[in-house]
Design goal:
The complex is a heterodimer of chains A (158) and B (732).
Chain A lengths: L1 E3 L2 E3 L10 H8 L18 E4 L2 E4 L5 H4 L3 E3 L4 H4 L10 H8 L9 H14 L5 H7 L10 H16 L1
Parallel strand pairs in A: 1-5
Antiparallel strand pairs in A: 1-2, 3-4, 3-5
Helix pairs in contact in A: 4-7, 5-7
Chain B lengths: L1 E4 L7 H6 L2 H11 L22 E4 L4 E4 L9 H13 L6 E4 L22 H23 L6 E4 L2 E4 L2 E4 L10 E2 L30 H5 L15 E5 L8 E7 L8 E7 L4 E6 L5 H6 L1 E7 L5 H4 L2 H5 L6 E7 L2 H6 L2 E9 L11 E6 L4 E5 L4 H12 L6 E5 L13 H13 L3 E4 L2 H6 L7 E9 L5 E10 L11 H8 L18 E8 L14 H18 L4 H7 L5 H17 L10 E10 L3 E12 L4 E12 L6 H20 L5 E2 L2 E2 L17 E6 L15 H16 L17
Parallel strand pairs in B: 1-13, 3-4, 9-19, 17-18, 21-22, 25-28
Antiparallel strand pairs in B: 2-3, 2-8, 5-6, 6-7, 9-12, 10-13, 11-12, 14-22, 15-20, 16-17, 16-19, 20-21, 23-24, 24-25, 26-27
The chains are: A alpha+beta (158), B alpha+beta (732).
């Protein structure tokens, strides 16, 4: 079993050598986590493993048995806020700043940002740049990503 | 996989011309047009097309079948705003949909930043025609004259009473469209009145789906009972399958079919689970042979052609120069080179195809669904009417998705197994099996007269076909001899005044490397050469590069004025001309994109001597793109352009070895990353009364050149080859 977005998911042995990314997308049919490079180079497949940002393409299913995995679909529930809307503060900041162009890399960016802010609730500019550097955005929205992370940190404080 | 090479003569077009094959070929072509290959959809939209794109439903909602494919450029939002402006409705009353290929007639492929520039007019005409049609329905209903039916939000006011659009849809009809009305006057371009939607920063209705992972891209589509296919693709461009031996792929659990068809180079596996595909393909041994192993660097070198004056196309040759050359007070003469580059969109392409007796369905993201439809129909020998393409949002396009190869692969496999089949490309396949931005090699000679004006400008370059890059042989050889590729030449007509002799010549040479559209086509390579040379000329004359450019922009009417204005603006924004700081340099560049968008960029570049690194720290951009429909969308596009420019200047380069790319993932093909991104300062200059124009690829060409010029200012070393870095400039 693994805990996926708060629910226990049975994992039969035949899937143990499959990447967590492929398993989530093609077996559990959670398609919000994206494939970008398959080598842990681009960050599109970022998920949380026990709260830490990891590349789903670099984990096998066997690695996460008995652990807790959160994908973009389950992120809002982890924010600990059961407010009137269903979004995580980082997701809200992303909409406020109108970050996405094509949007394909953004679930991974958001997962990286949420983990960064959990670790460092008030990051300075250099920490945001370093923390987000593993996630490629080919459309070039980095500056808006940066603003959205800063906004989420700011609004979390207030 | 094994690979044997067979060297075959590269019969290029000069051979065809010399041997008289060309004339014979043309005759043969025109006499049997059935042999013509399927081509991309290139006809521009007309005003009357708009009426088929917009409808009103019985509940008063507006249905907009958007004729632009969405890949992040935001055309669907901007065009929705135009619909809203004409019909007087709010954003939440519009359903903007991507039409199936069967729902609308073919519309032009989504390329060239034309979404707003070319489609706003027809969309406005369609929506305005629908509005007037409904005004007539309202007039008929309340028995008042047409001109007494006044506009209101979501409908009309007649004799003091509001009539919503929905009330005017007859019971028996659920949807109403309208015939084209030639006389209607769209109002979106006239902002004198209170604009409802134009100039407003509407946000994409897709944002919430994107940030929650709900948006469906090509890779995310699931069709019930779908099978999974994968293919052994040729290891080199143009390689053909010699032999394939199956050593038990079909014995693996879940494998449904092993396909080996040597006649069409097809080796594939179809399975019930995607997880078994890689192992199954491993069990098939393939041997390939190649017909081409040309090294493009041997061919794409302008100096090979310049000595003989041997260029295929003359873009212009105005005036003559003998006296100017002798009396020139300052000259510049230099070569510039840009690299092969990949689109590297974040979503590697994918598709699902379902071939049935009565219909073929295809789900995929692509810039030209009608081209995909035509190619699949030809591949399966089916009528185009039997093929339906369901277009999906693309995870980036950048010119790289005019084709959708996995859709064709999936269709071939589905035709064999009779079930829907999904084919997904991995990152390595995406790098290896698409088409590329070609290398450019330039040489420019120029000189100033005694008054400090450019007296002569002679620019020669060689590259490969871009717009016609996808045309297959043997048609390609025939086409190339007669048609100059405008994509390769985009941006090659420099915008400054030349008093005596202006000449631009080029060759678009086909090599073994597949080439095609990539963001901006030739604009960035050509602008890099032109604006670097302008910088050299300014320095040769001892002039400030910004003032020098302004002094050469007087004779070309409003184009000169608009370019001057953005140059002056960006100079002000960047506080141009401040004192020089060690290891910090600023450079300027400007360009007119497609004769419509005026952009100037100032770059600030920092040299880190200790780490031996060059970085772009700030970019200022002033852009005049006429009427701005959605300022936030346009600024996001400009931001993307500036970042793309940094990547092209400092990072991106694809090399080839024996007909295969040497870079297959982001470790070796580097794009700009977050920590390297400069701060950007963007201002939009809106020249009043000018229509909306292209913004998706306008700002990055001058960004590239400005960065190179800033590096020169910081180091005294001129970047002549892109990409450049600390080492290649030999700073130490």
């Amino acid at each position: 079993m693994m805990k996926l977005n708060g629910k226990q998911v049975p994992v039969s042995k035949e899937f143990h050598e499959i990447s967590l990314l492929d398993f989530n997308r093609d077996q559990v049919l959670l398609k919000g986590t994206k494939y970008g490079c398959g080598q842990g180079l681009c960050g599109a497949c970022t998920i949380h493993l026990d709260g830490i940002a990891r590349r789903a393409c670099q984990l096998n299913v066997a690695d996460v048995v008995g652990h807790e995995v959160t994908t973009i679909e389950g992120l809002a529930e982890t924010s600990g806020r059961t407010g009137s809307d269903d979004l995580h503060p980082v997701q809200k900041a992303w909409i406020e700043e109108a970050v996405p162009q094509c949007g394909y890399c953004q679930p991974g960016q958001i997962m990286t940002a949420a983990a960064l802010l959990r670790e460092t609730p008030q990051p300075d500019a250099a920490q945001i740049r370093t923390g987000m550097n593993g996630n490629i955005c080919r459309c070039g929205t980095y500056e808006r990503i940066h603003r959205a992370v800063a906004r989420a940190a700011r609004e979390d404080q207030s | 996989m094994t690979y044997t090479r067979q060297t075959i003569d590269h019969s290029r077009r000069r051979f065809l011309i010399n041997t008289g094959w060309l004339a014979a070929g043309i005759t043969a072509l025109t006499s049997c047009s059935g042999l013509m290959p399927v081509l991309p959809t290139t006809a521009n939209p007309k005003d009357e097309d708009g009426s088929s794109w917009i409808q009103i439903l019985a509940d008063g909602r507006v249905r907009f079948l958007c004729p632009r494919m969405e890949m992040g450029q935001g055309a669907t939002i901007g065009l929705s705003q135009i619909v809203a402006e004409e019909l007087g409705v709010d954003q939440n009353q519009i359903d903007c949909l991507a039409p199936d290929s069967g729902q609308l007639g073919p519309f032009k492929m989504t390329v060239g930043s034309e979404g707003i520039a070319r489609f706003s007019g027809p969309v406005a005409m369609g929506a305005a025609g629908l509005r007037e049609h409904f005004r007539q329905l309202a007039a008929d209903k309340v028995l008042l004259p047409f001109d007494q039916i006044e506009d209101a939000s979501g409908g009309f006011i007649a004799a003091g009473n509001f009539i919503g659009y929905g009330e005017l849809v007859p019971d028996q009809a659920r949807i109403i469209g309208a015939e084209y009305r030639a006389g209607v006057v769209p109002r979106f371009a006239d902002r004198a009145g209170n604009s409802r939607a134009i100039g407003k920063s509407w946000k994409s209705p897709e944002l919430e789906n994107i940030v929650t992972g709900k948006t469906i891209y090509s890779r995310d589509i699931d069709v019930p009972d779908m099978l999974y296919g994968d293919i052994v693709r040729p290891p080199r461009f143009g390689a053909t399958l010699k032999v394939a031996i199956n050593r038990g792929a079909e014995t693996l659990p879940g494998v449904v079919s092993v396909v080996i068809d040597e006649a069409i180079n097809l080796v594939a596996v179809v399975a019930k689970s995607p997880f078994v595909l890689a192992d199954a393909l491993e069990k098939i041994e393939t041997t390939w042979q190649s017909s081409a192993d040309e090294t493009p660097d041997d061919v794409l070198d302008v100096s090979l052609y310049r000595t003989k004056g041997d260029f295929e196309h003359s873009l212009m040759d105005e005036g003559s120069a003998q006296s100017a050359d002798k009396t020139a007070i300052a000259v510049a003469s230099a070569n510039y080179t840009t690299s092969y580059m990949a689109h590297a969109a974040m979503e590697p392409r994918a598709a699902v195809a379902w071939v049935r007796e009565e219909e073929v369905e295809v789900w995929c993201g692509c810039q030209d669904p009608y081209f995909v439809r035509g190619r699949i129909a030809a591949l399966l020998n089916r009528d185009q009417k039997e093929v339906v393409v369901h277009p999906l949002r693309m995870g980036g396009g950048f010119g790289g998705r005019v084709l959708c190869q996995p859709a064709e692969e999936a269709a071939m496999l589905s035709a064999r197994v009779g079930m829907p089949v999904r084919v997904q490309w991995d990152r390595e396949t995406e790098f290896q099996h698409n088409y590329f931005q070609p290398k450019f090699s330039h040489a420019i000679d120029c000189g100033l007269d005694e008054a400090g004006r450019i007296a002569f400008w002679r620019h020669d370059f060689v590259s490969s076909p871009i717009i016609f890059g996808l045309v297959p042989s043997p048609f390609a050889s025939i086409l190339d001899a007669f048609v100059a590729d405008e994509g390769t030449a985009r941006g090659a007509d420099m915008p400054y005044d030349v008093s005596e002799h202006k000449r631009v010549r080029y060759s678009d040479i086909r090599t073994g490397i597949p080439t095609g559209a990539w963001r901006g086509l030739g604009a960035a390579p050509n602008t890099f050469a032109i604006e670097s040379t302008m910088d050299e000329l300014a320095h040769a004359a001892g002039k400030d590069p910004l003032a020098f450019r302004l002094s050469q922009l007087e004779n070309n009417g409003s184009n000169s004025r608009r370019l001057s204005e953005v140059l002056r603006r960006v100079g002000k924004m960047a506080n141009w001309g401040q004192s020089v700081v060690k290891n910090l340099g600023t450079g300027v560049a400007a360009a007119v994109y497609k004769d419509q968008t005026f952009v100037a960029v100032v770059a600030e570049v920092r040299i880190d001597q200790q780490r031996q690194q060059i970085s772009v720290t700030r970019l200022w951009c002033a852009q005049d793109c006429g009427l701005v429909v959605n300022p936030d969308q346009v600024e996001n596009q400009v931001l993307g352009n500036l970042i793309w420019g940094c990547g092209m200047a400092l990072k991106e380069k694809l090399t080839f070895n024996e007909g295969a790319p040497g870079q297959l993932n982001f470790d070796s093909y580097e794009v700009l990353r977050h920590a390297e991104a400069p701060r950007t300062i963007i201002e939009l200059v809106e020249t009043s009364g000018t229509p909306p124009v292209a913004v998706g690829e306008s700002a990055f060409a001058p960004a590239v050149a400005a960065i190179a010029n800033a590096a020169f200012a910081a180091t005294g070393k001129r970047p002549r080859q892109l990409p450049f870095d600390y080492d290649s400039l030999q700073i130490q």
